[in-house]
């Protein structure tokens, strides 16, 4: 058995009630289908005509979806498309487990209740909700009116494999407790239902239900085209077994007259930077950082320019010809 539920830790969760690129995955364009097919169920309110104001809102929603899809493709290394303006979409992975996109209004709570959902497990952060104008408080308050459904949040940062890795054990532990308590069907969602949600569902199947990782991944892909970060799940599994041990690495940039040297990537993601410290005696910039086991890509930002250090390990060019520095941190026995 692959079950690791006895090793999982209690999470700090907020709840209500108590680059090679494969073919594009355009989920929201598919309609209908049975529970056991690979098609996506899209739920949206029917409408006959559209006013000018509504048309403008739809156009704005479409533009936001396009920007989000572009960012998602760049961050995930896979060509992914999400159409928020088409409404909530989902797939049954198992008869009791659904992976889908975010709820957009209290009306979506009613739709999920009709198909037997007892637990809504939201992985979004406030910034995700704000981007598409989702009123999470209204959804939570509406859920509280019913005794047959619970809405719970367990936040994971979007497009961040390292944050996913760190949070997975606690998030899956919380999910397991909710499922045991509430029964019925569980709806796991992030924003698009393409990255975080399928990763959490797969980790739950792997750690709790006894699927092998490959078996669970095949089942997931047979039901919903998505891109869970398998490496994050593998590393989270290793973290559970090794206690998230860390070792210190040292990165160095030789002085070249630059006034500022920073690092982006590593475990902080590409959207953040850490400054290096200049050592006058050694004539170089240095950064010491503790990292758990794993492979981390990074780049130097020297006076605003993104550069690789030719004296450190460099990745092979990706499909776009880009390269990064990388460091491989292995557990010391």
TrEMBL record:
Keywords: Carbohydrate metabolism, Hydrolase, Plastid, Protein phosphatase, Transit peptide
InterPro entries cross-referenced by the UniProt entry: AMPK1_CBM, DSP_laforin-like, Dual-sp_phosphatase_cat-dom, Ig-like_fold, Ig_E-set, Prot-tyrosine_phosphatase-like, Starch-Glucan_Phosphatase, Tyr_Pase_dom
Record field: compositional bias (Polar residues): 35-54
Annotated spans, Disordered: 34-59
Domain Tyrosine-protein phosphatase: from-to ranges: 89-246
One example of a Gene Ontology biological process annotation: glucan metabolic process
GO cellular component, one term: chloroplast
Major localisation: plastid
GO MF annotation, one: phosphoprotein phosphatase activity
Subcellular location field: Plastid
Domain Tyrosine specific protein phosphatases: 166-224
The protein, known as: Dual specificity protein phosphatase 4
Taxonomic source organism: Zea mays
Organismal lineage: Eukaryota, Viridiplantae, Streptophyta, Embryophyta, Tracheophyta
């Amino acid at each position: 058995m692959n079950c690791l539920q006895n090793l999982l830790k209690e999470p700090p969760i907020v709840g209500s009630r108590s680059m090679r690129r494969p073919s594009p995955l355009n989920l929201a364009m598919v309609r209908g289908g049975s529970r056991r097919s690979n098609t996506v169920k899209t739920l949206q309110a029917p409408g006959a005509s559209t006013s000018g104001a509504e048309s403008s809102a739809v156009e704005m929603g479409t533009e936001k979806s396009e920007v989000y899809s572009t960012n998602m493709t760049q961050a995930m290394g896979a060509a992914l498309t999400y159409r928020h303006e088409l409404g909530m979409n989902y797939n049954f992975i198992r008869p009791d487990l659904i992976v889908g996109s975010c709820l957009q209004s209290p009306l979506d709570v009613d739709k999920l209740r009709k198909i037997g959902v007892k637990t809504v497990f939201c992985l979004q952060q406030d910034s995700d909700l704000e981007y598409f104008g989702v009123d999470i408080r209204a959804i939570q308050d509406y859920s509280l009116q019913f005794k047959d459904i619970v809405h719970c949040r367990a936040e994971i940062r979007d497009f961040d494999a390292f944050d996913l890795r760190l949070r997975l054990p606690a998030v899956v532990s919380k999910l397991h407790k909710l499922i045991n308590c509430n029964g019925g069907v569980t709806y796991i969602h992030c924003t698009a239902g393409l990255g975080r949600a399928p990763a959490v569902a797969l980790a739950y199947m792997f750690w709790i239900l006894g699927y092998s990782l490959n078996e669970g991944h095949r089942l997931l892909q047979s039901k919903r085209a998505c891109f869970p970060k398998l490496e994050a799940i593998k590393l989270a599994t290793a973290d559970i077994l090794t206690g998230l041990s860390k070792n210190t690495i040292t990165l160095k940039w030789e002085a070249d007259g630059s006034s500022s040297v920073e690092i982006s990537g590593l475990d902080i993601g590409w959207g953040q930077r850490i400054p290096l410290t200049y050592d006058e005696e050694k004539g170089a910039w240095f950064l010491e950082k503790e990292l758990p086991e794993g492979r981390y890509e990074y780049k130097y930002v020297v006076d605003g320019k993104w550069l690789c250090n030719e004296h450190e390990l460099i990745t092979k060019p990706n499909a776009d010809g880009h390269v990064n520095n990388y460091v491989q941190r292995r557990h010391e026995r």
